[in-house]
Specification:
The protein is an alpha/beta fold and 230 residues long. The protein contains seven helices and eight strands. It has one domain (6-224): Rossmann fold (3-Layer(aba) Sandwich). The longest helix is centred in the N-terminal third of the chain and has 21 residues, at 6-26. Keywords: NADP, Oxidoreductase. Belongs to the NAD(P)-dependent epimerase/dehydratase family. Dihydroflavonol-4-reductase subfamily.
Length: 230
Protein backbone atom coordinates (compact mmCIF):
# COMPACT_ATOMS: atom_id res chain seq x y z
CA UNK A 1 0.00 0.00 0.00
CA UNK A 2 1.27 3.45 -0.89
CA UNK A 3 -0.01 6.91 0.03
CA UNK A 4 1.34 10.45 -0.02
CA UNK A 5 0.18 10.88 3.58
CA UNK A 6 0.02 7.43 5.24
CA UNK A 7 -1.26 8.77 8.56
CA UNK A 8 -4.35 10.51 7.16
CA UNK A 9 -4.95 8.24 4.16
CA UNK A 10 -4.30 4.79 5.65
CA UNK A 11 -3.74 4.69 9.40
CA UNK A 12 -6.43 7.09 10.63
CA UNK A 13 -9.20 5.54 8.47
CA UNK A 14 -8.23 2.03 9.62
CA UNK A 15 -8.20 2.91 13.32
CA UNK A 16 -11.23 5.21 13.26
CA UNK A 17 -13.21 2.86 11.04
CA UNK A 18 -12.57 -0.06 13.38
CA UNK A 19 -13.60 1.97 16.42
CA UNK A 20 -16.73 3.28 14.69
CA UNK A 21 -17.90 -0.27 14.04
CA UNK A 22 -17.22 -1.29 17.64
CA UNK A 23 -19.05 1.77 18.99
CA UNK A 24 -22.07 0.77 16.92
CA UNK A 25 -21.87 -2.77 18.28
CA UNK A 26 -21.92 -1.50 21.87
CA UNK A 27 -25.27 0.17 21.16
CA UNK A 28 -26.92 -3.13 20.19
CA UNK A 29 -27.53 -5.38 23.24
CA UNK A 30 -28.18 -8.45 21.09
CA UNK A 31 -24.61 -8.42 19.75
CA UNK A 32 -22.72 -10.82 21.99
CA UNK A 33 -19.47 -11.24 20.08
CA UNK A 34 -17.54 -9.29 17.44
CA UNK A 35 -15.13 -10.94 14.99
CA UNK A 36 -12.59 -8.65 13.35
CA UNK A 37 -10.34 -9.43 10.41
CA UNK A 38 -6.83 -8.36 11.31
CA UNK A 39 -3.59 -9.63 9.77
CA UNK A 40 -0.45 -11.60 10.43
CA UNK A 41 1.25 -8.24 9.83
CA UNK A 42 0.02 -7.16 13.26
CA UNK A 43 1.56 -10.25 14.86
CA UNK A 44 5.04 -10.99 13.62
CA UNK A 45 7.09 -7.81 13.16
CA UNK A 46 8.40 -6.94 16.60
CA UNK A 47 12.14 -6.90 16.06
CA UNK A 48 12.72 -10.57 16.86
CA UNK A 49 14.88 -12.51 14.43
CA UNK A 50 12.78 -14.73 12.16
CA UNK A 51 14.72 -17.97 11.73
CA UNK A 52 13.80 -21.65 11.16
CA UNK A 53 13.73 -22.37 14.90
CA UNK A 54 11.30 -19.51 15.61
CA UNK A 55 7.60 -20.28 16.04
CA UNK A 56 5.36 -17.21 15.86
CA UNK A 57 2.09 -17.39 17.76
CA UNK A 58 -0.83 -15.24 18.88
CA UNK A 59 1.08 -13.76 21.82
CA UNK A 60 3.26 -11.75 19.43
CA UNK A 61 2.36 -8.16 18.57
CA UNK A 62 4.09 -6.17 15.85
CA UNK A 63 5.98 -3.02 16.73
CA UNK A 64 3.73 -0.14 15.62
CA UNK A 65 6.71 1.82 14.28
CA UNK A 66 7.24 -0.81 11.60
CA UNK A 67 5.77 -0.73 8.09
CA UNK A 68 2.89 -2.86 9.40
CA UNK A 69 1.70 0.12 11.44
CA UNK A 70 -1.78 0.29 9.92
CA UNK A 71 -2.87 -3.24 10.84
CA UNK A 72 -1.11 -3.19 14.20
CA UNK A 73 -2.62 0.07 15.43
CA UNK A 74 -6.11 -0.82 14.21
CA UNK A 75 -6.06 -4.13 16.06
CA UNK A 76 -4.54 -2.61 19.20
CA UNK A 77 -7.27 0.04 19.22
CA UNK A 78 -9.90 -2.69 18.88
CA UNK A 79 -8.57 -4.65 21.86
CA UNK A 80 -8.32 -1.56 24.03
CA UNK A 81 -11.87 -0.50 23.19
CA UNK A 82 -13.21 -4.04 23.69
CA UNK A 83 -11.64 -4.32 27.14
CA UNK A 84 -13.06 -0.96 28.19
CA UNK A 85 -16.56 -1.69 26.91
CA UNK A 86 -17.01 -5.35 27.83
CA UNK A 87 -17.01 -6.59 24.22
CA UNK A 88 -16.32 -10.25 23.51
CA UNK A 89 -13.81 -9.67 20.71
CA UNK A 90 -12.09 -12.27 18.54
CA UNK A 91 -9.43 -11.43 15.93
CA UNK A 92 -8.61 -13.49 12.85
CA UNK A 93 -5.02 -12.90 11.68
CA UNK A 94 -4.40 -14.30 8.18
CA UNK A 95 -1.39 -13.82 5.94
CA UNK A 96 -1.63 -13.34 2.17
CA UNK A 97 -5.16 -14.48 1.37
CA UNK A 98 -5.61 -16.08 -2.05
CA UNK A 99 -8.08 -18.53 -3.53
CA UNK A 100 -11.01 -18.59 -5.95
CA UNK A 101 -12.81 -15.35 -6.71
CA UNK A 102 -16.54 -14.89 -6.25
CA UNK A 103 -16.58 -11.54 -8.10
CA UNK A 104 -14.46 -9.84 -10.79
CA UNK A 105 -12.79 -7.50 -8.29
CA UNK A 106 -10.34 -8.25 -5.53
CA UNK A 107 -8.31 -6.72 -2.74
CA UNK A 108 -4.68 -6.20 -1.86
CA UNK A 109 -3.65 -9.85 -1.33
CA UNK A 110 -4.95 -11.18 -4.64
CA UNK A 111 -3.73 -8.10 -6.48
CA UNK A 112 -0.26 -8.69 -5.04
CA UNK A 113 -0.31 -12.35 -6.04
CA UNK A 114 -1.57 -11.59 -9.55
CA UNK A 115 1.32 -9.18 -10.09
CA UNK A 116 3.73 -12.01 -9.33
CA UNK A 117 2.29 -14.33 -11.95
CA UNK A 118 1.19 -11.95 -14.71
CA UNK A 119 3.46 -10.61 -17.46
CA UNK A 120 6.50 -11.87 -15.60
CA UNK A 121 8.78 -12.93 -18.44
CA UNK A 122 11.72 -10.70 -17.52
CA UNK A 123 11.04 -10.38 -13.80
CA UNK A 124 12.55 -12.16 -10.81
CA UNK A 125 10.88 -13.33 -7.63
CA UNK A 126 12.04 -11.91 -4.29
CA UNK A 127 14.32 -13.76 -1.90
CA UNK A 128 11.64 -13.78 0.73
CA UNK A 129 9.02 -15.72 2.61
CA UNK A 130 5.38 -15.89 1.59
CA UNK A 131 2.64 -16.56 4.16
CA UNK A 132 -0.30 -18.05 2.28
CA UNK A 133 -3.82 -19.10 3.22
CA UNK A 134 -6.92 -19.98 1.24
CA UNK A 135 -9.87 -17.58 1.44
CA UNK A 136 -12.13 -20.54 2.19
CA UNK A 137 -10.14 -21.30 5.33
CA UNK A 138 -10.25 -17.66 6.40
CA UNK A 139 -14.01 -17.56 5.92
CA UNK A 140 -14.42 -20.79 7.87
CA UNK A 141 -12.27 -19.41 10.70
CA UNK A 142 -14.60 -16.42 11.02
CA UNK A 143 -17.64 -18.70 11.16
CA UNK A 144 -16.08 -21.02 13.76
CA UNK A 145 -14.87 -18.09 15.87
CA UNK A 146 -18.46 -16.84 15.93
CA UNK A 147 -20.16 -20.17 16.58
CA UNK A 148 -17.78 -21.83 19.08
CA UNK A 149 -18.59 -20.42 22.53
CA UNK A 150 -15.07 -21.00 23.88
CA UNK A 151 -13.37 -19.10 21.04
CA UNK A 152 -11.40 -16.14 22.35
CA UNK A 153 -8.46 -13.89 21.62
CA UNK A 154 -6.49 -14.01 18.39
CA UNK A 155 -6.17 -16.74 15.77
CA UNK A 156 -3.29 -16.93 13.29
CA UNK A 157 -4.86 -18.49 10.20
CA UNK A 158 -2.02 -19.42 7.85
CA UNK A 159 -1.61 -22.63 5.87
CA UNK A 160 1.97 -22.24 4.64
CA UNK A 161 5.08 -20.24 5.47
CA UNK A 162 7.09 -20.84 2.33
CA UNK A 163 9.79 -19.26 0.17
CA UNK A 164 8.68 -17.71 -3.10
CA UNK A 165 10.95 -20.24 -4.85
CA UNK A 166 8.76 -23.09 -3.61
CA UNK A 167 5.58 -21.27 -4.64
CA UNK A 168 6.79 -20.84 -8.21
CA UNK A 169 8.14 -24.39 -8.27
CA UNK A 170 4.59 -25.62 -7.63
CA UNK A 171 3.14 -23.19 -10.19
CA UNK A 172 5.63 -24.34 -12.83
CA UNK A 173 4.53 -27.92 -12.18
CA UNK A 174 0.87 -26.97 -12.56
CA UNK A 175 1.36 -24.70 -15.59
CA UNK A 176 4.61 -25.71 -17.35
CA UNK A 177 3.89 -23.67 -20.49
CA UNK A 178 2.83 -20.48 -18.72
CA UNK A 179 5.33 -17.62 -18.56
CA UNK A 180 6.17 -17.56 -14.83
CA UNK A 181 8.97 -16.16 -12.72
CA UNK A 182 12.02 -18.42 -12.84
CA UNK A 183 14.89 -16.62 -11.11
CA UNK A 184 15.48 -15.24 -7.64
CA UNK A 185 16.47 -11.60 -7.33
CA UNK A 186 19.99 -12.55 -6.20
CA UNK A 187 22.35 -15.53 -6.14
CA UNK A 188 22.55 -15.76 -2.37
CA UNK A 189 21.29 -18.82 -0.46
CA UNK A 190 17.52 -18.68 -0.15
CA UNK A 191 16.19 -17.04 2.98
CA UNK A 192 15.12 -19.80 5.42
CA UNK A 193 11.48 -19.98 6.45
CA UNK A 194 10.27 -19.53 10.02
CA UNK A 195 7.10 -21.06 11.47
CA UNK A 196 3.71 -19.74 12.52
CA UNK A 197 1.84 -21.81 15.09
CA UNK A 198 -1.37 -23.50 13.92
CA UNK A 199 -2.31 -24.73 17.40
CA UNK A 200 -5.12 -22.23 17.97
CA UNK A 201 -6.38 -22.65 14.40
CA UNK A 202 -6.74 -26.38 15.08
CA UNK A 203 -8.88 -25.56 18.13
CA UNK A 204 -11.30 -23.92 15.70
CA UNK A 205 -11.28 -27.12 13.67
CA UNK A 206 -9.53 -25.57 10.68
CA UNK A 207 -8.17 -28.14 8.23
CA UNK A 208 -6.25 -26.07 5.71
CA UNK A 209 -6.74 -26.39 1.97
CA UNK A 210 -3.51 -27.88 0.53
CA UNK A 211 -1.26 -25.27 -1.05
CA UNK A 212 -1.25 -26.89 -4.49
CA UNK A 213 -5.07 -26.88 -4.52
CA UNK A 214 -5.15 -23.26 -3.38
CA UNK A 215 -2.67 -22.16 -6.04
CA UNK A 216 -4.46 -24.06 -8.81
CA UNK A 217 -7.89 -22.74 -7.83
CA UNK A 218 -6.52 -19.20 -7.65
CA UNK A 219 -4.93 -19.42 -11.10
CA UNK A 220 -8.04 -21.01 -12.62
CA UNK A 221 -10.18 -18.27 -11.11
CA UNK A 222 -7.88 -15.62 -12.60
CA UNK A 223 -8.31 -17.36 -15.95
CA UNK A 224 -12.10 -17.62 -15.65
CA UNK A 225 -12.41 -13.89 -14.96
CA UNK A 226 -10.05 -12.95 -17.79
CA UNK A 227 -7.07 -11.81 -15.72
CA UNK A 228 -4.80 -14.54 -17.11
CA UNK A 229 -4.58 -16.55 -20.30
CA UNK A 230 -3.25 -19.96 -19.40
Amino acid sequence: MTASDPQSQLIDPAVKGTLNVLRSCVKVPSIKRVIITSSTASVMFNGKTLSPDVVIDETWFSDPISCEKLKTLAEEAAWKFAEGNNIDLVAINPGLVIGPLIQPTFGFSLETFLKFVKDAGTEVFPDGICILVDIRDVANAHIQAFEIPAASGRYCINAEVIHYFEVFKILHGLYPTFNLLEKCEDDKPLLPAYKISQDKAKILGISFVPLEVNLRDTMESFKDYGFLTI
